[in-house]
Amino acid sequence: MREIKCECGHVNPVGTVLCEACGRPIEGNQHLDGNNNKKLLNMRYDGTARRSQTYNKSIIDKIWSFFSSVKVGVWLIVIALVASMVGTIFPQEMYIPANAISRNPSIYYEDQYGIFGLIFYQLGFHNLYTSWWYLVIIALIGISLVICSLDRFIPLFKALRHQKAKKHISFLSRQRLYSETKVVSNEEINLLKTNLKKQRFKIKVENGHLLAEKNRFSRWGPYVNHIGLIIILLAAILRVLPFFYMEEYVWVREEQKPIVIPGTKGQYYIENKDFILETHSEEDDRFEAAIAQEGMIPSNFQTDIVVYQSGEKSVPGAEAELEPILDDSVRMNKPAKFDKYTVYQSGYQLNEFTSMTFKIHETSDSEEVALDTFTVDLAAPEPEYNLENGFRVVVDKYYPDYYLDNNGIPASETNFPRNPAYVFIVYPPNSDVAEVSFVGIGRNIDATGENNYKLGIEDFEMHDVSGLTVKYDRSLPLFGLGAAIFMIGVIQGMYWQHRRIWIHPTENGILMAGHTNKNWFGIKKDIENAIEGTNITMVEDQQELDEK
Amino acid sequence: MDLLSVSSGALYTAFILYLIATLFFGAAVRDKRTDKKLHTTSEKIGITLTMIGLVGQIIYFITRWIVSGHAPVSNMFEFMTFLGMCMIFAFIIIYFYYRLSFLGLFALPITMIIIAYASMFPTDVAPLVPSLQSHWLYIHVTTVALGQGILFISFVAGLMYLIKEIDQTVKSKKTIWLEVVIYILVVFIGFIGITSAFNMMNYNAAFEYPSGGNTITTEYRLPAVAGPNEGTLVTEGVMNPWFETPGWLQGEDAGRKFNTVIWSLITGTILYGVVRLIIRKRIGAAIQPLFRNLKADLLDEVGYRSVTIGFPVFTLGGLIFAAIWAQIAWGRFWGWDPKEVWALVTWFFYAAYLHLRLSRGWHGEKSAWLAVVGFGIIMFNLIVVNLVLAGLHSYA
Ligand code: HEM
């Protein structure tokens, strides 16, 4: 195959369907754009030579053709669409509710949704959006985007640059909008030009042949938006690298010593000064009805935090100097920032126990006069307490979050002191006879029923816990850039249209044809306005009915 | 009079105006060639009433904003009403570009269904929970609704195209599917009718049922055909449920919602049956002659055009602004929560539509079907995903 020289003298690349300069259909290539047996020419890419349509020998050619096909692209999009839908049938693993029977997916799905749940889980749909095959589909879309864009953009760009005002008659008559006028005067032509200019058409004239064109840039819209999409996909890939992305979740207890923020290599510490939960006032007339209906509605979740930077350690092993660098309130929708990190209010736990004070009294004493007291610090419970008046209390068992399991055996639901309970062994002064006591909130059980001494809760302190997400995400600007380019591209391609009008002089009159890539209603209006005041025949829409 | 009654009064007025405007558009479509002047006059009255109606809705919106202190787009009632407003807005824009009065014949009644449907949800002014307290909420929600409103026009044009073009002389798959679409619209009307009827009677039946270790009380506003799973009726002197909602129907208040669906289907089916009995043909076939003077290719063009205009707006609101807000509120711009996924599905769908339009053979009827399905996906996201596949955005 060699380059094709057209009658008009222009040399076209192999595979050209319509001569880049004069638009004459090139024999033998018409099947490439499906122009055979059609009256109208396929103008989607202006009949340019596209690699995907031209070469089909090597395996690379075949792959290229495959990915540049719109049909394949649409299939990929549809597959991604259907897969995405499937993932919403049941909750994804991360959305299994906290109050579920079990958050273990192998139990949850079957228990909750029966056989369908089991299948859903076994097919791995509970983590569908991170599954390898979903990612492969997305990656294929990405490849397809790159190849299809290259396949079309370059030839189209060249063709539109080379186009001439003078077009072959068969090019004009096979446009969707077309008319012939037998007699046209020079004044009419001039009026036509003025009218076109008024509508911001750029006009090119060659020997009486005229090309009026506007908004060519809108043709690049799809390629711009595809670039945006590719940038977004690249950003998603880069985010896997730790340089770009880090996320940690920390529980920070109120009024405790600053704790190191995980993921910061010990550089930063955080302290929770106060956690605040506020609700909308019931007294507010505006909201009375809604609150009566739905119950209390929270109005604010907030953590007052201090972030410290740790200084040089003076001696290895010694505690580092902490220097406060940020004193801020983190709220929902108002994260706090320091260095490259952002802190989000993500969760909370109300009323954990900080410390509990117990007293010992005689079982028979109805006044419950304290013989001795001791305080358990729940952050650091001690194994044994030796009390002033000679009692010795050994902590035999400790359940931070006490409950009775299915078999009626005491257990701890979590490791957090939300509902602490203990088995204490009490040694009275000067005695080796131990008494066993079980003490919890609202419980005091004497296993043998023969204890002489009894334990009671005298006092306690509580605190709230904030769940904070600490993260940085350096891929955000890249996502933003991609999204912005995408938006520019779609707006460019959708809100403007590339309109062209050709005039071909005949003996006494003209032939006129028009083409736009979309919004035919708009170009017809343009032409109507342009021929106003002249006798030029309005173009006829030759759209073929088989396109319905 | 307090501001809140001004607000709901304005909404109600708008609703009535849309109804009257529909009649005028109807008169305009029944074009008797002989009387061109009458035709344009009724068209003008129709569009004027529509615009006054839109002003009414804007008054509703602003006054409610003043009362609650936040833009009224934060629960199901408010969002859907706002969506209705955007649909009318989109209709007006397209009207002035193409001067197509017949679009109003469908756009207005369907918008009315949406607004009426919205008012079946609790309409109390509710305060905002912390996650919604962000300007990005307004920006995101309003842009999404605007995009969906514009895409709605493509649905209207597509539906009209199908009614006009599908051969009604023989029964075919196409006529059946078209009737299904119309039937679904009728089911919505059935839902609105039956809910309003029992609301007016102040019907109430309370149930208690266990859920995750707690006992929850729920109030049925419609007689319980399907009671809650393992529920017990508390109210006396009301109908006992015929059966229990199956346990695999999950989510908050699954029983009550399931019961509502049953009632809507029953009422809708009866309504549809009655209409069929009266007109003695498919509803599509009955409407078809009205559209005799419409140009099918213009309908196709309008449908495609609204997608090209609506798609960028939807992308901006439903994906980009949504992601920005999610980043600020939760620290993650994308979380694969069902609502987000369905926004992505909608986006994929319209992307596929746009690419299919590039090739020959997908214009006209196939496009029209796609436009109908596309709007179906939007409604699915709004209704089913909100009420059933509850996620973070769950409203009601
Ligand atoms: C989710 C992914 C995609 C999105 C959101 C997207 C978006 C778009 C949009 C908005 C247009 C403009 C359509 C118009 O002007 O009517 C377009 C055009 C186009 N897209 Fe995509 N696209 C995607 C994937 C793909 C893929 C995978 C292919 C691969 C074959 C592809 C091939 C094309 C082609 C060939 C055009 C027409 C270009 C032209 O008219 O010059 N797109 N795309």
TrEMBL record, chain A:
Compartment list: Membrane
InterPro entries: Cyt_c_bgen_Ccs1/CcsB/ResB (IPR023494), ResB-like_domain (IPR007816)
Topological category with respect to the lipid bilayer: Multi-pass membrane protein
Bilayer-crossing regions: 72-90, 132-154, 223-245
Domain of life, per lineage: Bacteria
Domain ResB-like per the UniProt entry, residue ranges: 70-431, 451-527
Family matches, as Pfam families: ResB
GO biological-process terms attached to the record: cytochrome complex assembly
Keywords, alphabetical: Cytochrome c-type biogenesis, Membrane, Transmembrane, Transmembrane helix
GO cellular component: membrane
Cited PANTHER family: CYTOCHROME C BIOGENESIS PROTEIN CCS1, CHLOROPLASTIC
Protein name (database record): Cytochrome C biogenesis protein
Source organism (scientific name): Oceanobacillus chungangensis
UniProtKB/TrEMBL annotation, chain B:
InterPro entries to which the protein is assigned, alphabetical: Cyt_c_assembly, Cyt_c_biogenesis_CcsA, Cyt_c_biogenesis_CcsA/CcmC
Organism domain of life: Bacteria
Gene Ontology molecular function: any one: heme binding
Main location as per UniProt: membrane
Location of this chain's protein in the cell: Membrane
One GO BP annotation of this record: cytochrome complex assembly
Stored Pfam families: Cytochrom_C_asm
GO CC field: plasma membrane
Residues spanning the membrane: 6-25, 45-67, 79-98, 105-123, 135-163, 175-198, 261-279, 302-328, 340-356, 368-392
Domain Cytochrome c assembly protein: 74-175, 269-393
UniProt keyword Signal, yes or no: no
Keywords: Cytochrome c-type biogenesis, Membrane, Transmembrane, Transmembrane helix
Protein name stated in the entry: C-type cytochrome biogenesis protein CcsB
Gene: ccsB
